[in-house]
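Database export, one record per block. Field names are fixed; values are copied verbatim from the stored entry.
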Amino acid sequence: MTTHPDDETPLPVRIKAMWATGAFGVAILMNGISALALFYFVSVLQIPAAIAGFLIFLSKIYDAVSDPLTGVLSDKTGGDSGRRRPWLFWGAWVSAISFLGVFTVPFIGPWPSMTEGPGLIAALYVLAALLLYTTGYSLFNVPYMAMPAEMTNGYHERSSIHGWRVMFASVGGFLSQSAAGAVLEIMGKDWDAHAAVGALGGSLILAAMLTAWWGTRDAPSHPRSEVSLPFREQWLGLWRNRPFQQILAIKLVQLIGVSASSGGLMFFLVNVIDMPLTLLPVIGGPMTLAVIFGTPLLVRLSKRVGKRGGYVFSALLTGLVGLSWALAQPGEHWGLLALRGAVNGLAFAGNVVFAMSMMTDAMELDYHQTGMRREGMYSALYSFVEKLASALGPLILGLALSGAGFNPRTPPSEVTEEVRQAVLLSIGYIPALMAILAVIILAFYKLDEETLRGLRSGARRNT
């Protein structure tokens, strides 16, 4: 099934929903690693915080190879199943296995040295598990994120598709962060508890991703492009696509804030304000509900104020929520936690929906400029930025904790102001700064519905 540059026919709800189930699995995979892995490596395996953060960062550098390679190969894939779906199938299996592997590391410290003996073996094992996770994420998510550009050319229909995605992603995020944190608290936050979370999460990832693979068998798609340009010309085309560069820059700064906040929340609750992880659902529940009920409202808002206006609103909300953590103290009322979760959920929905919808617009712009279907390459570059940002967050947090002299065995009543500020750096100050930078970049974004309609009209006249 194929679509054409001037086809804006709305997609059946069934296809949108089935495609969006993949986001449920991706959310468990990505959020589970970003929110739980650093805490697990430091507090359970007893790997020094700076080294654990560096291992996560190092695994992401590998994305510079895995993401573009997957994108290019999926662009060139042929066959009756389309260019993207075969990659979804294999990516589902690798992703599920890797999630289990990350949380079942068979080595526990303390380590006299991380450069020799058992400590070095443990570090290499952790790095290998993280590299497998990175591979699975690339295999599935790069082709997956390229599919909306093929499924519709409707300007606001793209926001609708990603609205379905963000709703499924919010449920996956709730399970991988809030619910998983509560399970860890109940089971003792030890090795066995994390292994149980790894097994359950891996099963859910596999089921969700395979559902997306199977459920999109009738989704519209584009055939492999017959147009070929020299490598240098292809990269110049990417360089000339200014809206795409702006979206990459916006998401880089925003996701640095998100990854820093996700990794720091458990440390803040457990080690700074002395609150049990069973309270994570008090934050995650309202956040999920806000995403589910707020996303359709945000899509409607964008029809009035534009995608850029909706994106600015969402970014500012993110910054305000981050700064509010500086006011949190031991004994924080659960209502304030729930309020933060709800506002953050609305901000999260807008950040994802508008960013991905605008990225899909930039993919179409590239087609009109070059005549090539390179959705996979664009999705790969976006995915690389996404994972680079998710690596910088734990690296920043690990270095900040190390510099502040953090000891996971220190009771909250004895935590120093330096440690508190180190954690607040990740969950408050950095997200707020990144939100401001995102708004500044958005001020220069110009690609809108009228521009795209003009390009399609020109394409029709030339055919």
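Remark 1: Residues 1-6 have pLDDT under 50 and may be disordered.
Remark 2: The chain has 14 helices and no strands.
End of record.
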